[in-house]
Amino acid sequence: MSLTRVHNLSISLDGFATGEPQSLEAPFGHAGERLHGWMFGTRFWDAGGSAGVDDAFAQRHSQGIGAEIMGSHKFGPPGWHDDPEWRGWWGPNPPFHTPTYVLTHRPRPPLEMAGGTTFHFLDATPAEALAVAREAAGGQDVRIGGGATIVRDFVAAGLVDLMHLVQVPIVLGRGVRIWDGLEALEDGYDIEAVSAPSGVTHLTFTRRATA
Ligand SMILES: NC(=O)c1ccc[n+]([C@@H]2O[C@H](COP(=O)([O-])OP(=O)(O)OC[C@H]3O[C@@H](n4cnc5c(N)ncnc54)[C@H](OP(=O)(O)O)[C@@H]3O)[C@@H](O)[C@H]2O)c1
């Protein structure tokens, strides 16, 4: 059975997955690079990085994934819809290497990139988007790549089987929060926490089997 998974979603202690305002110069707003400092030190990010706890979690991002779904604000800064040349933040060879579905109310034709990534633009409900991505994933799992809004919407719709969050010891105070509207989420998931020497806490939410 193909699973729906979230990986490496970094949040502040107060639950923000991004700061504000987002712009071309500041993709994470006032959070800057602080949410992902833990990842930059890993072998997953950089061949010279560490192979410790953070790396072990980070590597799972790419394992067994056949498609990604992301939100419009992960794909580009405000205004990208009006720029026909915008092809995402990641250069000619984005790090997805699978069909990648961008949810937007202003879809455009697909963009085929190097390395196996093709961006498809979809105006669809989470359940509809997941059905399309699952078909494309060819039996592998589907990753919900963020940002916060998309992850929240897929969790709220009951579509996420496994969620890996990384709680970073900073307080952002503003931005887009992951938790809003997800009251009692813990009732549906087994939750584990692992503290890493880097100071972050890896949280895994594994959906409980229904009787
Ligand atoms: N902390 C992390 O690990 C992490 C990971 C990934 C991204 N991020 C950051 O998170 C931020 C983006 O998150 P976000 O919460 O602002 O936005 P987001 O989840 O990326 O995208 C939300 C947008 O997607 C479109 N959308 C959502 N649901 C849709 C649906 N069902 N059908 C059609 N379109 C739909 C809408 O934009 P339209 O206007 O296009 O319709 C909506 O405003 C960025 O700053 C990114 O860098 C953080």
From TrEMBL:
Protein name as it appears in the record: Dihydrofolate reductase
Gene3D superfamilies: Dihydrofolate Reductase, subunit A (3.40.430.10)
A single GO molecular function term of this UniProt record: 5-amino-6-(5-phosphoribosylamino)uracil reductase activity
InterPro entries with a match to the protein in the record: DHFR-like_dom_sf (IPR024072), RibDG_C (IPR002734), Riboflavin_Biosynth_HTPR (IPR050765)
Name of a matching Pfam family: RibD_C
All copies of domain Bacterial bifunctional deaminase-reductase C-terminal, residue ranges: 8-184
BP GO annotations: riboflavin biosynthetic process
